[in-house]
Amino acid sequence: MSEAAVEKALDQKMNTVPFKMVGRDVSVYYGEKRALFDVNLDVRENTVTALIGPSGCGKSTFLRTLNRMNDTIENCRVTGKITLDEDDIYDLSIDVVELRARVGMVFQKPNPFPKSIYDNVSYGPRIHGLARTKAELDAVVETSLQKAGLWNEVKDRLHEPGTGLSGGQQQRLCIARAVAVSPEVILMDEPCSALDPIATAKVEELIHELRANFTIVIVTHSMQQAARVSQRTAMFHLGNLVEENDTDKMFTNPDDQRTQDYIMGRFG
Ligand SMILES: Nc1ncnc2c1ncn2[C@@H]1O[C@H](COP(=O)(O)OP(=O)(O)OP(=O)(O)O)[C@@H](O)[C@H]1O
Ligand SMILES: [Mg+2]
Asked: The whole model's pTM is what?
């Protein structure tokens, strides 16, 4: 097959990936201030979607609408519709705790609980009743730490505090904690910004592997990171979704001038 034919086949493949989450006319207000304007964005299954754009453009705000973390912010109001599979996640019948188990989150600053490594990972499965016996719980802890690429580094110190790990290890612990409840989607808000280049590379590699089993949405300020880890990229500017496209296209031949300017470092 010629290079063009391969590319076309890949494009077609990308275009047939089912949508895991769909956002329609999503607007967000903080009191009187409107932070997002009628955003229409689809999140594809088993795909890494990167959200990029200058500071204050609404990336974190949009990310938080996907598991209703905005509910925790006073004065914050969301309009429009967001579905997970077919479920409207803002419907009154939705149990938010259950929703956040299906759509997990990893934050910018690693935030392990002030507890042991074991307890950090086993907490979610315990409260969600995902393990019936100690042996089952042990197994969930081990596989989650393995998926987060941390098992070998911590297997002999599971009962030491999570806060005693290095920054990069703590972030992988937080990823293990997110993975432990078997979420369908994992949201990551600048997960590497507090990490050094080596720890960043580890987390990026991990994101690449997690994609096989999870749908991932990641906010990043690093164009290189977006290009390395994502298959789809969405560009925000002043609360608007400017463009959403295959990552390769976004970084070589974007449709919108604002995307071009941003990735060339002309603003932001
Ligand atoms: N809790 C809040 N209360 C009031 N306004 C907020 C709140 N959080 C965000 N905003 C406002 O909403 C807009 C979008 O903010 P958001 O944090 O989503 O941007 P961002 O793209 O994630 O920026 P950054 O790259 O700096 O993290 C900004 O104008 C911001 O000031
Ligand atoms: Mg942000």
From this structure: 0.92
Q: Spell out the residues 6+ positions from residue 264 whose beta carbon is closer than 8 angstroms to its own.
A: none
Q: What's the pLDDT at 47?
A: 97
Phi, psi of 204 (to 5 degrees): -65, -40
The answer, yes or no, to whether residue 98 has pLDDT greater than 80, is: yes
Helices 134-147 and 117-127 pack at an angle, to 10 degrees, of 110
Q: Which domains does the chain have, with CATH numbers?
A: 3-263 (3.40.50.300)
**In what helix (H) or strand (E) does residue 215 lie, and over which residues does it extend?**
strand 215-219
What is the Å distance from ligand 2's center to 51 Cα? 10
* Beta carbons within 10 angstroms of residue 2's beta carbon: 7
Q: How far apart are CA 176 and CA 108, in angstroms?
A: 15
Task: Choose among 57, 146, 257, 104: nearest CA to 154.
Answer: 146
DSSP 70: G
Query: Which helix (DSSP H) or strand (DSSP E) does residue 180 occupy?
Result: none
CA of 172 to the centre of ligand 1 (A): 26
Q: Residue 85 C-alpha to ligand 1 middle, in angstroms? A: 27
Cβ contacts of 72 within 8 Å, gap of 6 or more = none
Per-residue pLDDT tens digits for 51-66 = 999 999 999 999 999 9
The protein residue whose alpha carbon is closest to atom 17 in ligand 1 is 60
Residue 70 token pair: 């905005």
Q: Are 101 and 181 in contact (CB under 8 A)?
A: yes
* pLDDT tens digits, one per residue of 58-93: 999 999 999 999 999 999 999 999 999 989 999 999
Residue 14 has pLDDT above 70, yes or no: no
Q: Which residue in this structure is represented by tokens 């949201």?
A: 187
